[in-house]
Amino acid sequence: MSFFKKIFSKDKKEKLDEGLEKSKSSFFGKLSKAVAGKSKVDAEVLDDLEEVLISSDVGVATTIKIIERIEERVSKDKYMGTDELNTILREEIAGLLSEQEHGNYESLYIPEGVKPYVIMVVGVNGVGKTTTIGKLAQQFKNKGKSVVLGAGDTFRAAAIDQLQVWADRVDVPLVKQKMGSDPASVAYDTVQSAIKQNADVVLLDTAGRLHNKVNLMNELTKIKRVMQKVTADVPHEVMLVLDGSTGQNAFEQAKQFTAATEVTSLAVTKLDGTAKGGVVIGISDQFKVPVKYIGVGEGVDDLQIFNKFEFVDSFFNKA
Questions:
Q1: How far apart are CA 203 and CA 237, in angstroms?
Q2: pLDDT of amino acid 317
Q3: What's the confidence (pLDDT) of residue 3?
Q4: How far is CA 264 from CA 101, 185, 257, 276, in A?
Q5: What is the rounded distance in angstroms from the CA atom of residue 89 to the CA atom of residue 67?
Q6: How far apart are CA 207 and CA 151, in angstroms?
C-alpha cells in the first residue's frame, strides 16, 4: 500500500523491527491460536481477534474501531480467508492511524523564529523521563542546536543527580537548585539562562509524582505562569512521557495528564523490553495528541521519531 513509505534509514528501521520483536511474537502467537483450524473469517474469528487485540494492549475503543472496519470488509466480500487477516489488519490499522495528525518525521522540528524553543517534559516517576530528556538533548546537539536543561523535579535528589549525569555526558548546561526548591523558580531561571546564552532549545524536567488531578494541574499551571514572566507563549511544547511496558497503565496516565494540563506531544518509552507494543496503536488513535517519539533501545538514537506507517510495517512484518 502507499501508506508504507520507506523514509527511515536502514539502521533505524532494523532497530525498530528488533525493538518490536517481543510485541510482534506475542501478537502473532495469539493470532495463530485464534485462527487455528479455521479457513474463513467469520463472527467467531472476529470475536477471537477482538480478544487478541485487547490482550495485546491495543485498547478497547481502538479494538472496536478495527473490528468494525474488518466486519465492513467481510460483509462486502463473499469469502475472506483467515490467511488474509495479517494483510487486512495491517491495512486497517495503518488506515486508522493515517487519520490522526501527522508529525514531522524527518527532523527534530523547531518552528522558524522561535528561540529558545521550550519543551516541558511531564510524566510519572520511572517512565524514562530523564533518559528521554538526555537523549533528546544529544539529538538536538547533533543537529547543531544549543540546549539548556532545567532540573524542575526538585522533590527527588536522584532526579537532579540523574539529569546532571546526562548534562555532563552531552556537555550541555544544567540549571538546578537544591532539593525542595520551588519547581517554578527553576523553570524561571532555566528560561532566563537560555535567553542569556542565546540557546535554541530548553528541555525542562518536572516532578513525577502522581498526586491528585487538582494539585497536578495547579503545579503545572504555576510553572507555566512563572516561565511566562520571562517570555510569553512558553512552554511551546508539553511532552508527556509514558512507559510502553506498563500497557493499560500508560493509557490511565495519559488520561490523567491530558486532563490536568494541555499535553501537546507524547513519547512512549521501553518498547524493546515488552510485549505490549500494541499500546502505541491505541494511544496514537485515542488521544488527540501526536505520539512524537518511541524508545526502542538503550542507545541515544534508539529514541526514534515515531512514524505510524513504519511502526505498522515493522509490527506486521513477519519476515
A1: 10
A2: 79
A3: 46
A4: 11, 23, 11, 23
A5: 9
A6: 9
Give the mean pLDDT per block of 10 residues along the chain (319 residues): 51 88 92 89 92 94 95 85 88 84 66 94 93 97 97 93 97 96 97 98 90 80 96 95 93 89 93 91 88 92 89 81
Radius of gyration of the chain measured on its C-alpha atoms: 21
With CA atoms as reference, report the closest residue to 310 among 2, 9, 22, 8: 8
Euclidean distance between CA atoms 66 and 44, whole angstroms: 16
To 5 degrees, how large is the angle CA 100–CA 103–CA 108? 160
The pTM is what?
Answer: 0.90
- Cell numbers 516541558 correspond to 120
C-alpha cell at 224: 507555566
At residue 9, the pLDDT reads 65
Q: Is cis: bond before 290, omega within 30 of 0?
A: no
Cβ(235)–Cβ(224) below 8 Å: yes
Q: What is the DSSP letter of 306?
A: P
Report residue 279 CA to chain centroid gap.
Answer: 10
The residue written with cell numbers 524508545 in the block is 295
Question: Cα(183)–Cα(181) distance, rounded to whole angstroms?
Answer: 6
Can you name the residues that pair with 242 across neighbouring β-strands?
268
Closest CA to 170 of 204, 134, 195, 215: 134
Say how many CA atoms lie within 13 Å of 191 toward its Cβ.
25
- What b-and-e string marks burial along 104-141, b requiring 16 or more CB atoms within 10 Å of the CB? ebeebebeeeebbbbbbbbbbeebbbbbbbbbbbbbbb
What are 314's strand-pairing partners?
none
CB 224 within 8 A of CB 139: no
Q: What is the pLDDT of residue 319?
A: 52
